[in-house]
């Protein structure tokens, strides 16, 4: 077991995960995405284990690029085999715990405030 995480997924918030994942599947010529039964999550698997995931956000507002009135945002899911060790390591490196509800993942902010999750795998 290691406290060093590996990149699990890049997750994009959106109003319709299946639709957006399908767009990227077509754009990138990848297999059709795997969509959860409730439609709130979709995974798009690329070469080399790269995964882009799409999460339903009911109040999603698209970024107003290049302006910053609604800034661009995303979060990273980082897979770990030892959640407790990875938790301690992340905190020691400057992460701030945002949500530690008992489940298989925890939500943090990096030193600049961007959210990321450590996910037990």
UniProtKB/TrEMBL annotation:
<dbReference type="InterPro" id="IPR029068">
    <property type="entry name" value="Glyas_Bleomycin-R_OHBP_Dase"/>
</dbReference>
<dbReference type="InterPro" id="IPR037523">
    <property type="entry name" value="VOC_core"/>
</dbReference>
<dbReference type="Pfam" id="PF18029">
    <property type="entry name" value="Glyoxalase_6"/>
</dbReference>
<feature type="domain" description="VOC">
    <location>
        <begin position="6"/>
        <end position="121"/>
    </location>
</feature>
<protein>
    <recommendedName>
        <fullName>VOC domain-containing protein</fullName>
    </recommendedName>
</protein>
<dbReference type="InterPro" id="IPR041581">
    <property type="entry name" value="Glyoxalase_6"/>
</dbReference>
């Amino acid at each position: 077991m290691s406290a060093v995480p590996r990149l699990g997924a890049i997750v994009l918030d959106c109003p319709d995960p299946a639709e957006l994942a399908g767009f990227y599947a077509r754009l990138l010529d990848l297999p059709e995405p795997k969509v959860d039964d409730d439609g709130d999550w979709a995974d798009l698997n690329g070469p080399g284990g790269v995964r882009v995931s799409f999460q339903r956000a009911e109040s999603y507002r698209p970024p107003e690029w290049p302006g910053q009135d609604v800034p661009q945002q995303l979060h990273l899911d980082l897979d770990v085999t030892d959640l407790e060790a990875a938790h301690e390591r992340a905190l020691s490196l400057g992460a701030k715990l945002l949500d530690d509800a008992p489940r298989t993942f925890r939500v943090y902010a990096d030193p600049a405030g961007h959210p990321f999750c450590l996910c037990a795998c």
